[in-house]
Design goal:
heterodimer, A: mainly alpha, MetI-like fold, 2 domains, 13 helices, 79% helix, globular, B: mainly alpha, two-stranded antiparallel sheet
């Protein structure tokens, strides 16, 4: 009797969690296959699979909706911010961890405070500041805040990982005649690869998905990023759902690829800061 | 560290300068810019009129601002309940021996976390659509047709309808954090509890919850600050409507500044938001500490 009850419980629990997993992934799968349907097919039955995959929606999204240009802008912003964030977080984290100098604690806590300052409160002030300084609507406009908001986590993660690199390594390098800069970039940096890849992944995801800053700091259509482009596009084609879904799929593609390649690291990286902090 | 290894101070400062410059420009300076502008009446043109604390007096009495903050609080209430409640339940099931394909479930449930709020917003807007939405189609299919609502057009339930996508998206995030904490519990403690007859609800309530209380407090704090900053998703799903029934503080500050061109008052609202968010975080931390002392 007890065994039967246990089995029953197991079946229920497995069924429940499986159902839950399906709810988490089904909207995405639905989004992908529905984007391959024609508008007519979609309105006849919203759940059915496409009879014949129709890539016309993608062609239209790219030619009429300028989705391609938004995609390129987002990629440019994301990759530029990513490279700079990696270099600056590493240098800053390394210096703060290794050297004692005047203002060290102050600088460290200033960066940490960045984790507490909510971006959405700074939205309008940044806009006003950039307007006064004439920094709005430039190719590099968004990269600056994207770097700034990714630095706190980056510095924090690098700082704690450099701590675990034995100093003897650097001493040995010094004796062998390696310069300070050479040791830092060619010897210590490779040893911090795991944490730097976490920083890279986090920066990529946040920057690619960022919306509010892109909304207020950029007016010119030629510079708009993917999330903003999507709102324009959807505003113009509200009635054609498959077309809308095709645009959503294009904008999600890089993130999906990243996730399929690095899901373990993404899960660990995104939650690491939380548990440690 | 030996002297030979340490570069001159000037080199260190030189290395730190670029990062500091960008950070100060985008994170620290805006705070001062906001405080400065909050004392002015300014529409973005050349004329700035100093008004002292008038903007602050207006903000304190601004019905629209406080109703937006109330919307924030309602939204936070539902999302915290949904995200942490469901995440805890799934985490308890995932750590038990009876569950199969644990890694698969973890990976799948976490996936929506990496999506952008804009994509989630649009996707759910289509899903909530009265004619072509999956939500209504599925509800009709399982016989719940009578409960169908105008999900995003009914002012009474719109906050709840907006909270569901947020809950859906972030359960995975809290699931991973809670799962790590639960798996950190000494297995023998759980086994002894089970031998003593504590299973299911009792085991969760009296054994697991007290043991992971610190992590729970951290997740609640993360959850509050994470949901306080909701902007993108509401912006694309309802734009704050119908009327202002789903307007949140960030959206309000945005509308005041960008649509009504009141940059001075918008800056005051920004400072208000900053104070309220930090206040909420402090409050939840204090509540957590008090609980611990008991």
């Amino acid at each position: 009797m007890k065994k039967a009850w246990d089995m029953f419980q197991g079946v229920v629990a497995n069924a429940f969690v499986s159902l839950f997993s399906i709810t988490c992934i089904f909207p995405i799968i639905w989004m992908i296959y529905s984007s391959l349907k024609t508008d007519k097919e979609f309105s006849l039955n919203i759940l059915s699979l496409p009879a014949k995959p129709e890539f016309g929606n993608y062609a239209r999204a790219i030619t009429e909706g300028k989705i391609g240009s938004y995609f390129v802008n987002s990629m440019f912003n994301t990759l530029s911010a990513l490279v700079v964030v990696l270099v600056i977080s590493f240098i800053t984290g390394y210096c703060i961890s290794r050297f004692r100098f005047k203002g060290r604690t102050f600088i460290y806590y200033m960066f940490l405070s960045g984790m507490l300052i909510p971006i959405y409160a700074l939205l309008i002030p940044i806009f006003v500041e950039f307007k006064t300084l004439g920094l709005l609507n430039k190719k590099f406009t968004l990269i600056l805040p994207y770097i700034a908001f990714a630095l706190p986590t980056g510095v924090f993660l690098v700082e704690s990982s450099v701590e675990s690199v034995p100093i003897e390594v650097e001493e040995a390098a010094c004796i062998d005649g390696s310069s300070f800069i050479n040791t830092m970039f060619r010897i210590v940096m490779p040893m911090c690869k795991p944490v730097l890849s976490t920083v890279a992944i986090l920066t990529f995801l946040h920057t690619w998905n960022e919306f509010p800053l892109a909304l207020v700091l950029i007016r010119s259509n030629a510079l708009k990023t993917m999330p903003i482009g999507l709102t324009n596009f959807v505003g113009a084609y509200t009635v054609n759902y498959p077309l809308m879904l095709a645009a959503l799929v294009v904008s999600t593609l890089p993130v999906v690829i990243m996730y399929l390649l690095f899901y373990n690291q993404i899960m660990k990286g995104m939650t690491a800061g939380a548990v440690k902090g | 560290m030996s002297k030979a290894l340490r570069p001159k101070n000037i080199v260190i400062y030189g290395l730190l300068a670029p990062g500091l410059a960008v950070f100060v420009l985008c994170c620290i300076a805006p705070l001062f810019v906001a405080v400065y502008n909050s004392f002015f009446d300014w529409d973005g043109g050349p004329v700035k009129r100093f008004v002292g604390f008038q903007n602050y007096a207006e903000l304190v009495q601004d019905r629209a601002f406080w109703s937006a903050f109330k919307n924030n609080l309602t939204f936070i209430f539902w999302t915290v309940l949904g995200q942490i409640g469901i995440a805890f339940l799934i985490a308890m099931l995932l750590q038990s021996r009876i569950l199969k394909f644990k890694n698969f479930h973890r990976t799948v449930i976490f996936f929506p976390v990496v999506l952008s709020a804009v994509v989630v917003g649009f996707l759910w807007r289509i899903m909530y659509n009265s004619e072509y939405g999956i939500v209504n189609t599925l509800m009709r299919a399982v016989g719940l047709g009578n409960f169908i609502q105008l999900w995003l057009d009914n002012p009474d339930i719109v906050i709840g309808s907006l909270a569901i996508p947020k809950v859906w998206q972030f359960i995975g995030y809290y699931l991973i954090i809670l799962l790590a904490a639960i798996q950190g519990i000494d297995q023998s403690v759980l086994e002894v509890a089970e031998l003593d007859g504590a299973t299911g609800w009792k085991k969760s309530r009296y054994i697991v919850v007290p043991l992971i209380k610190n992590t729970l407090m951290v997740t609640i704090m993360l959850c509050i600050s994470g949901n306080m900053k909701t902007f993108d998703q509401i912006f694309v799903m309802t734009g704050g409507g119908p009327g202002t029934s789903s307007e949140v503080v960030a959206l309000y500050a945005y509308n005041v500044s960008m649509n009504r061109m009141r940059y001075g008052y918008g800056s005051t609202a920004a400072i208000g938001i900053l104070i309220l968010s930090l206040g909420l975080i402090m409050l939840s931390r204090l509540a957590g500490r008090k609980k611990e002392e008991e």
